[in-house]
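Q: What would this chain look like folded?
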Amino acid sequence: MTNTSSVRVAAVQATACPFDTSRAVEIVCAMTSEAAKEGARLILFPEAYVGGYPWGLAFGTAVGGRSEVGRRVFGRYWESAIDVPGPEVERMCQVAADLGVWLCVGVIERDSTYSTGTLFCTLLYFGPNGELLGKHRKLKPTAAERLIWGEGDGSTLTTVETDFGRVGGLICWENYMPLARMTMYGKGVKIYLAPTADSRDRWQSTLQHIALEGRCF
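A: My prediction, written as structure tokens:
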């Protein structure tokens, strides 16, 4: 870390692209470029931006049953997820390197080494050197998210060093888990990220509390 008096951070709010991963990655690259031109050095995209947050989808589920239509919809959703590493990750690494920025993107991740059918809600950290610096998998999917996403574990609670301090974060409702927050504080987080697909006003109070509690931005 080097001394710096200020840093510009961009929190991107962009329309998602359900079932169109290529388009989502294109938007990540375009909006990252736009933010960098405005002087942003750290750029954050929402929860599940690449792969999509499945607002309103039930995937044909009911207690004790699953419909064939729902299975097909889930198959499309699974196909929209990305491998880490994989071609979409390489593209985002490249744009971070080309623009010399730190980039953090919420994705839906497949992991064939864990389970061919399991998806994870994941936050990826890219550095200006073009490397994937880290990833965090959502520890406990919220409510009906548990039908479609697997659980992460504590091994992915991470921060990354930048020249303006340590950056790290938790995804959506994880930010209401005190022990997860304490882990981030213990890892020295200075710029705390909280990507979410939830736009309710309560988040303003939540983030103010976290900033005071963790002595972070």
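The helical segments are 21-37, 68-80, 87-99, 178-186, 202-214.
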